[in-house]
């Protein structure tokens, strides 16, 4: 029987919804148990949140000062140790998971399985390849522990509230490396919703034309309470910072509403919005490929259409 260890992702003492998405993927394996591992300095609030997620059997916590910041070099040896007795270790395929999971896999002597989008069997999974142009079925070696990252955009967050899983403190006999230490975290301060988990996203592309012009995107996003994203061309041109990039080499997102403004719809961009609900495109070129995937398309100048839309919203 399978036993799955899900690694909790958290920030500022709060559990990230990516964890509940990884729990959904774990539930699809139909395992005997799904345990969530919380590695933090203060574990209580995070563990309490994790214990409420449907399907979670136990929450295991390791409270150590060294776990105050998610340093992969520090977390991976603890994950590898805690993985003892588990058939699978699932980690969300977010920046956090992509950092920590390969290290844990290497320490366990296995190859990591990346971006699981569906579970076909206990050791058979589907994942995207070629920038999402093809889906490959992968079979993991049943005699080895499966260390997998879970493509969060492909999985709904498991419901929360009805469960009350036991929380157990774990003592892991593991020497942590001292070669990597936390110096400082630099992150863009923003009151806007987080791009990766927002239900509405407004993205601008090269068509927006300049850093200054991008204000029109920020203004419209604020009007509808959306997060802001961008194409790689807009990022490369310096209109916005790279953490706003959506696509193959940026963020993979699944908002309910995605608005692509002045974005042509290159395959590398579309792979980041494959799981979006409603897609709206505004582009002056009626032949732009974005219209092939858009549910609603407005052909015209974004500098004319956006103010009109904004006015119509009142
Ligand atoms: C390995 C690799 C990885 C990549 N990863 C990513 C990725 O993660 N994300 C990503 O986005 N791209 C990625 N790319 C780049 C991708 O191929 C495209 O070059 C990029 O997405 C184009 O961005 P864009 O649509 O903003 O620009 P363009 O393709 O130049 O499109 C601009 C659009 O704006 C429209 N426009 C111009 N002016 C106006 C106006 N006034 N009003 C309305 N519309 C207007 C034009 O008609 C045009 O369709 C990657 C490429 C490679 C090779």
UniProtKB/TrEMBL annotation:
Top-level taxon of origin: Bacteria
One Pfam entry name: ETF
Cofactor note: Binds 1 FAD per dimer.
Start and end residues of each Electron transfer flavoprotein alpha/beta-subunit N-terminal domain: 4-186
Keyword terms: Electron transport, FAD, Flavoprotein, Transport
GO molecular function: electron transfer activity; flavin adenine dinucleotide binding
Cofactor(s) in the UniProt record: FAD
Binding-site residues for FAD, renumbered to this chain: 206, 231-232, 245-249, 262-269, 283
Gene3D superfamilies according to UniProt: HUPs, TPP-binding domain
GO BP annotations, alphabetical order: fatty acid beta-oxidation using acyl-CoA dehydrogenase
Residues forming coiled coils: none
Alphabetized InterPro entries for the sequence: DHS-like_NAD/FAD-binding_dom, ETF_a/b_N, ETF_a/FixB, ETF_alpha_N, ETF_asu_C, ETF_asu_C_CS, Rossmann-like_a/b/a_fold
Protein role: The electron transfer flavoprotein serves as a specific electron acceptor for other dehydrogenases. It transfers the electrons to the main respiratory chain via ETF-ubiquinone oxidoreductase (ETF dehydrogenase).
Entry similarity comment: Belongs to the ETF alpha-subunit/FixB family.
Protein name stated in the entry: Electron transfer flavoprotein subunit alpha
Native organism: Rhodanobacter glycinis
